[in-house]
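Database export, one record per block. Field names are fixed; values are copied verbatim from the stored entry.
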Amino acid sequence: MNALNSRTAAIAAVVLIAPAVTGCGINTIPTKEEAAKARWADVQSAYQRRADLVPQLVATVQGAAISERAILTEVIQARAQATGVTVTPETLSDPAAFQQYQAAQGQLSQALSRLMLVVERYPEVKSNQNFLVLQTQLEGTENRINITRIDYNEAVRDYNTSLRTFPTVIWAKTIHGGSEPMQLFQATEAAQTAPTVNFDALNPARPGGTAAPTTPGAAPPAQ
């Protein structure tokens, strides 16, 4: 009977203590951490979607025989670098890994922007139905990337704040002592400046080059 009473008392204690422990924020840090990791998965998915579109975009532009081949090579190389750098949820607190990832994605963004500037000179590309579809998909993906980055940053700020504010800072110093602040996306220096293309250098038709300029709508010079 005494054993039964003791067991009943223990269960009653757990029932009474559990809400108090839960209410004091002991689960706040892991909950917010998981939310931030989920937002990171959204970011990676959006970037992967862009990477998947690049080969189709390059193939379509190549089919138009544009003369600025260096831009296509740059896009291909930037994509390879961007897909070769990964950040796992476990390394989101590593500044070096995160900055490397962001830099690689930024280089691909810049390369794609330069490619779109070049395409402006080729009506046959701009009117290509496949290109128009890919351009629309790419624009939608870029918008999605921006949204997921904002959502991720908000989730990370919320999580990082919980590591420094009362009462959750108590758990950050004790039970969740291994929790580290996650990295935020920051605007890169390159993002502050619109991409530029030196057509004089890309097209030997211009001063300093050796060939004649291409007339809009006419076939590009043979390579």
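Remark 1: DSSP finds eight helices and no strands in the chain.
Remark 2: The two ends are 96 Å apart (CA to CA).
End of record.
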